[in-house]
Predict the 3D structure of the following.
Amino acid sequence: MNSILKYFIIICLLVLGFFIGYVKYVELDNKKPTIYLDNHCGERVRIMKSKKLWAELDNGSTIIKRDLKQGTHFLYIHKTESNVIDTISIYVKEKKKYILNPYKGMTYTEEEIMYKSVYDGRNVKNQKSTNINRIFFETDADYILKKPVSQIKLRSKNKSPEYFNAQVLKKYLKRQH
C-alpha cells in the first residue's frame, strides 16, 4: 500500500511540475511583442535576422510574428528582384504591437472612433487622425489592418441611466490606398 501511495505522489508532483512549466511558457509567450510584417514595396522581400531567414513575404502580403524577445534586433531586408538590401535596427518591448513596413511601401492612418452604448446610426470619428509612413513603428491601436466595425456592444451589469450614455474610444490602424 505504501508503494502505491508513493507512486501516486510522484505522479502528482510530475503533473504539477509540467503544469507549472506550461503556465510559465504561456506567460512568457504572451509577453512577447507582436510584429505585423506588411509588405507593399512592389517586390517580394526576404528578412534576415542573426544571419538566418526570419520571414519571406510576397508583395501585398502580411504575416504576424511573435518570436522576438524584448531588446534590440538588427534586420536585413532584401528585395529579391532588384537585389536591394536595407539594414535596420529595431527595439521592441514586451506586450507591444509594431508594424514593419519594408521600404516604406505603405502609408497608414491611425484614427480614433468613439462608440456609443446606444447606436443611433452614427459613430463619432475624433479629429485625431495621424498618417504614418515609416519602416518600423509602434502602435497602440485596438484594431490593426482591419476595417473599423460600424458598432460594438457595451455590456455592463450596471443598469443605471449613466450606463445608457456610455462611450468607448477605439483606435484603428489601416492602410491608405
Q: What stands out?
A: The first helix runs from residue 2 to 31. Residues 46 and 56 are 4 Å apart (CA to CA). Residues 1-31 form one domain.
